[in-house]
Each structure stands twice: as C-alpha cells, then as structure tokens.
Design brief:
3-stranded antiparallel beta sheet; alpha/beta; membrane; 6-stranded mixed beta sheet; SLC26A/SulP_dom
Length: about 700
Amino acid sequence: MIISTKIQKKNEKPPPEKLFDPSSDSPFLSFAPQILFWWGGKKQFAFFFFFFPLSNAPLVRMDSTYASSSYPDLSSPAMPTAGGVSRPVKIIPLQHPSVGAGSSSSSSNSPAAFFSGLATKWKRLTFLQFIDGLFPCYRWIRTYRWRDDFQVDLIAGLTIGIMLVPQAMSYAKLAGLEPIYGLYTGFVPIFVYAIFGSSRQLAIGPVALVSLLVSNVLRGIAGPSDELYTELAIVLALMVGILECILGLLRLGWLLRFISHSVISGFTTASAVVIGLSQAKYFLGYNITQSSKIVPLIQSIIAGADQFAWPPFVMGSGILAVLLVMKHLESVGIAKALAAKNGYELDSSQELVGLGLANIFGSFFSSYPSTGSFSRSAVSNESGAKTGLSGIITGIVMGCALLFLTPLFEFIPQCALAAIVVSAVIGLVEYEEAIFLWRIDKKDFLLWIITCTTTLFLGIEIGVLIGVGVSLAFVIHESANPHIAVLGRLPGTTVYRNVQQYPEAYTYHGIVVVRIDAPIYFANTSYIKDRLRDYEVNVDNSIRRGPEVERIYFVILEMSPVTYIDSSAVQALKDLHQEYRSRDIQIAITNPNREVLLTLSKAGVVELIGKEWYFVRVHDAVQVCLQQVQSLHQTSSPAAESKPNRFERLLKQRGEDLSVAELESGQRKASASRNGDPNLEPLLSHKFTP
C-alpha cells in the first residue's frame, strides 16, 4: 500500500527522534515505526510505504487478547525480544476470586446447609408432590387408562404369576426352606412394592442368588430341618428390609457404584455354577454335600457316582430342555433399562425404600429376603406391562395358588423344581462378558477372574469381599497414580496436547508443560512430585524449538482437569515451589477452576508463587516463559558481530507480531520464517502442516 500525503508547510520536517519514538502517545506517531519515509523535495510530497502495525493490537485477531493489568512487569524493558527491543506480551487476564466471596460457597457444603436446603425443598412441595414422593403408585393411578392399559397389565400379571409359582417353590428349596415359604415370599412383598416401588415392570420375589446366600449364611447356624432355621430366614428378611430403607432414606445408593460390573459379573457366574452343582442331587438320585465351594461339591458328586439313578435324570433333563427352549424366546433387562424404554424416570433411592418395605412387611407374613428378578422382569416388559397393576395381578395369582392349589403341589417331582432352578441360573454364566473384557480391558478381566475364582473355591462371602476389595484397590491405585502428560504445541495452532498422543506436537527448550488429569490429594501428591522431578531431568523425545538452553527454567502446570485439591496438595505445591526456587526454576499455573484457585488463595500459594504466574491459557504462559528464556539465552550467548540498527530491529519485530496475530486468528496459514535464525521467532514453528 502506498499513501501520499501533501505537506502543509514547505520546510517543516518532523524530527527523526519523534517520528520513530514508540513511546509516543500521538495517533500519527504511533504508526511511525512501521513505514519507510521518502521526501519528494520540491514537489512537496512525501511517500510513506506502509508495512506492519506497531504493536500486537488485534487488527486481524479474532480472539480478544490484551495485556493484563495483573502483570505490570511483563512489558517492561527487562524482557527483550529477539531484536533487543521490549514488546508487551498479550495474554488473557486470569480472574482471581476473593476469599470472602468464596466463603459462602464453602459454607454451602456444610451439614447445616444440607439439612437447611432439604427442609426448604420439603416446604416447597405441594400436596400432590408430597403424595407422589410418599406413594409412587399415585403417579400411574391418576393417569391410568383402563381401556388401553388394563388388558396388557392383566396379561403380563397372569404370565408372571404362572412363572412365579413353580420358581418360588424351587428357590425356597434352594434356600433350605419348605416350598410353601417361597409362595409366601412371592405374595405380600409384591403388593407392598406395587405401592412404594418406582419401577412399573420390575417383578420382585424370590430369586436364585439371594436364596443361595440365605442358605449359605444360615447353614452355619442351624440345620435346614430345625425350626430355628426357618425363623432366622424370616428375621433376615426383616433385617434386610430395614437396612435397605435406611440406605434409601439417607440416599446412600451411590455406595453401590464402588462394586464394579466386573465384580458383579464374576460373582454371578461363580454363583450360578455353585447353584447348578447344588441341584445335581435331584438329577442324579443321591445326596451330595451342601456347600458353597466347588471342590467339596465335585468330590461329593464323584464319590456317589455308584448310586446314580436313571429315572430322575431323564425326567429332570427333559424338563430342563423344554425350559431352555422356552427361555430362548425372551430377553434379560434391568429396572433402569425398562424405565428408559417405557418413558419414565427411576429413582434409585425410592427403589431401595420400596424393596426395603416389601421385605419388612413380607417378614410379618413368613417370607424370606426377596428382590427383583431379571428373568421375570424381562418377561413382564415383553408381555406389555404398563403399570404396577400387573404386579398386583401377579400377587392375586399367588394368593389363589396359596388358597386353592397347594394340595396339588405336593406331587411335583423334585427334579422338576431343580430343572427350574438350573434353567434360571444358566443365563447367569457370563462367559461372553469375560471374552469382552479380555479384548477391552485386561485389568477388568483380571478382576473378573479373581472374583469368579475366589467365589468358586473360597465361598460366596469371601469371594465377593475379595472382589470388592480388589476393585477398590484398583480405584485407589488409579487415584494415587494419576495420568500425567507432557504437552506440546500443535503446529500452526496455539493448542497444546499430549506429545505421546500427537507426535507432531513440539515443545520449547527450557520449558516443560505438564497436565495433571486428576484431583490432587494426599494419596497422589508424592507420585506427582516424583513425576515432575523426572520431567525436569529426563527430556522427552518430542521436537523442541526455541533458544537452546542447557536445562529447564520453567514448569507450567495445566490444571484444568484438576477438580479438587486438599491441604496435603497445597503443602506439596509449597514444598515444590521452594525446591524449584532453590534450583532457579519458576512454576506457572494455567486455567485452575474457581474452587481450586480459591483454595490456593486461602493457603497463600497464589502470593507465594506470584499472581503474575497464573494464566488462563497454556499459550499465554508459554509466551511469557519463552520470552524469559530468550532473555537468558541472549545474555549467555556471544554478541553478534554486526548489530542491526534500531530501525531494522523494529521492522523485524513488527513482522513477528503480524505473523503471530494472523496465525492465532486463523486468517491465514502460517508461513515460513523470514529470518534464518530459529531462535528469533519463538511463537512460530519451523515447519507447518497445511
């Protein structure tokens, strides 16, 4: 661009020192250093060749960056550019929350604030909302469509009732009880859950796993033939119900999240094998040892092989084959999946309360512990159940069976009941899950193997405890050894990513950028400090740019993934700062969240490190640190043989600034450096990918 300007006064020329003074406040003089000046002599014209803007003002930038008032020394002459002339570093200021403003947020997490908020919620409830919370059945009663819903609920209820009668008797035998107690367990609890439960398709009653647990717990106290055994099973239902209600009322259902899917899958697989072997006596025709361990069961089966009887084996196998063929026609689901499919929300805490009340009221009518059945719930859903009325119909079927059909049940063969149990637990053997875990996550596969093996050989209680313990150990190990990544700059951007994931990303000499991908607390502070020391000594293999220096001068901590820090982490940061300071290394922190920054401020870490070393972006921190590294490099390197004059240095600086502005704004692709010295362009990569 060529701009011609007529001179008003013939012999008046601006003094050179004012024309090229970058500190001038004049609007005209602010553009002086970016032009070439030529006088036209007698024609009284001057030609100005416009090159670059004076400063890093965002003429082509799309993001609004500016010099932060929090960092008054960043633009001081002590931070020279490659040409020796100081220029301000453009960064986004980090907003530091005041300690007083954060006290309210901290107090909101106190127990008093929690109960106060809970009381406020109760006061805001309307009468209908209160009834909905107390009796979830009211939600579907007030919107029930008799013409559309009653027929499908009736069919589903009858179907589940027909399934439940033989299953209830079979599971009672598995629990070491008389079959009649299985019918009791499938009667009253169903009505109670229909009133207080939130799932509309979940079918509760006796199930195989719970029955096995009841048998395994009570056999160590009394024999199945003793009256005490039956009484203990009923009391156990009361205790289970009370515990479930407490967990639900205190909304402690989140504790179950610590039992991983691998533990549950391994436990159910081993339990299914034990249950199946325990029913072998009804197929083989002779007694075997009652145990929850696989070795005594197999030894007992082998020892009594000479007593094998064909009739029960043939009848039981035939009934089992028929049941398996029929079972191959439904799918297995759980309450949350059923709720999502049918368009309503499931309250986990309300579920615990509903199941707890079902067990409590059931214990008053001679039932043993009950819960939701996977297979029956799936059949309920496939049968089209819309509301809890289907459960009430199932309860009516069970009542009719207790009143009128019990004399007929006396003649049901034991092998038929055993076939029902075996057909139910075959689906619990999740070998496909083990194959899936082997492909996806070897650690979860190991957890599955540990849980399954210990349950088979050491018993159900020990197996599940070991599985949960190992699962928690894995969680603690992951938390105590969090993922930490060294970040590099992606070519042509101001984005910084893991150099292991993006090999093309490059770092800068004298600077290491580290991202901590976890909360920092007492269990992982030592590991984090050790890793940071390693990064200081062991340089990664990524491409490195910038002035070549012999060691690390700046450690930048990217803390956006850090959601929480405790007092131990604060003390560790203080110790690390003192340790780095003794070796002339500066810490910089980028993008901490409000709570983390507030904790650091209260602990005095912000003032200890210095507010000027807290940044919004990693790139802002890198710019400041890189300018310092350049200054250190220039003071240690020999002086140039031919030092460029001030005018040439200004032109070179403007070229760098415009290139950076265009690069970060995305207005143009990055171009190659105009200068041969790679140390003179700290913010531009040597080679860019299109």
